[in-house]
Amino acid sequence: MNARIGRQVKHFKNIDVDNITATFSNDDLYRYTLQMQYIDRKEQNNTITVILKNPSSANEKMADNTIRRVENFVYSDLLPRINSWGSLVGFNPTRVAKPTTPTH
Fold first, then answer.
1. How far apart are the C-alpha atoms of 91 and 52, rounded to whole Å?
2. What is the pLDDT of residues 57-82, one digit of tens each?
3. Which of 26, 34, 47, 48 is 20 to 30 Å from 87 by CA-CA measure?
4. Is residue 67 part of a domain?
């Protein structure tokens, strides 16, 4: 794999590192997806999509500082706010709205 921008660090402690998947371009220069689960939250079966703007050095085995912060934020702040029916949550790094219950 070619060198990437940024320093690599370990993934957040509650990430199931053995089951992380990633999709790279044929030349391994671009990562298109990075999918992971939290070890103790697999039964929740919620999916959260985070789109990041800048280049990243994260892969299946190592994170970078930005990915690590997102992993921690989702685990500590965002997942506790999502209820079991799979709320659609607007993502703003500085503030997350409390999910509402559907009226129908």
1. 11
2. 889 999 999 899 999 998 888 877 76
3. 34
4. yes
Say if residues 74 and 12 touch (Cβ distance below 8 Å): no
Distance (Å, rounded) from C-alpha 29 to C-alpha 41?
A: 31
Chain centre to alpha carbon of residue 94: 16
- Domain presence at residue 12: yes
For residue 104, tell me if it sits in a domain.
no
Give the C-alpha separation, 96 to 26, whole Å: 36
Q: Which pLDDT score is estimated for 94?
A: 41
* pTM (predicted TM-score): 0.70
Number of domains observed in the structure of the chain: 1
Two tokens, residue 85: 């029916």
